[in-house]
Task: inverse folding
């Protein structure tokens, strides 16, 4: 993690962009350490920048995954995919979003390849890359709309494990999730598994193997 907190004075003026330093990130995450070490605990950073918070959370989650499941590549892959699918980020600036995705994927790949070397599967890295493209987005967290000439509601995907190697994807509008959280006093995505605790999804997908998540678009 870089300790550089300002890219340029112009970006500070235009966007109020100041990155949180490594020491502050660690101290703040230590306040919720049990959640950062729970593999399926979901985090949303509405001004994610280049990912200082999200990368540290992922590293903590991967520490737990490796400690518990490193002896089985299959189990490590399942839970590492679950860990990366639990992280969400929004930023107005395209270069920040690209760098945040890159850093998260690098942290994921570094740990995976260090453990399994040539046995590491390209499909597992592709799955992580696809999930990051869905979860880390260039949008406006304040308006809850996409950026561009035709703004539309931000849509996030919920990824839920099912029967070992399968994932269930359901898409929700960010606005719907936040309204639900505000009125129900529940997390962004409920872990209770009951539809009554969530707004209606805008789209549901069939169960799919964790290595084939990108194919769900078809």
Result:
């Amino acid at each position: 993690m870089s300790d550089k907190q300002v890219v340029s004075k112009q970006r500070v003026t235009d966007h109020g962009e100041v990155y949180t330093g490594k020491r502050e990130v660690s101290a703040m995450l230590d306040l919720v350490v049990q959640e950062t070490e729970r593999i399926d605990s979901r985090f949303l950073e509405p001004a994610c920048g280049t990912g200082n918070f999200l990368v540290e959370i992922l590293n903590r989650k991967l520490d737990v995954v490796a400690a518990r499941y490193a002896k089985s590549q299959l189990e490590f892959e399942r839970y590492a995919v679950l860990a990366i699918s639990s992280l969400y980020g929004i930023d107005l600036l395209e270069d920040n979003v690209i760098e945040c995705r890159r850093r998260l994927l690098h942290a994921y790949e570094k740990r995976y390849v260090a453990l399994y070397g040539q046995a590491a599967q390209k499909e597992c890295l592709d799955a992580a890359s696809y999930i990051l493209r869905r979860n880390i987005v260039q949008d406006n967290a304040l308006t809850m709309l996409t950026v561009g000439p035709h703004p539309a509601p931000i849509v996030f995907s919920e990824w839920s494990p099912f029967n070992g190697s399968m994932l269930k994807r359901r898409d929700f509008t960010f606005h719907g999730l936040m309204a639900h959280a505000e009125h129900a006093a529940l997390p962004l995505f409920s872990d209770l598994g009951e539809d009554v605790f969530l707004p209606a999804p805008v789209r549901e997908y069939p169960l799919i193997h964790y290595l084939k998540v990108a194919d769900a678009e078809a």
Remarks:
- The chain has one domain: 9-217.
- Residues 9-217 form one domain.
- The two ends are 36 Å apart (CA to CA).
- The longest strand covers residues 155-162.
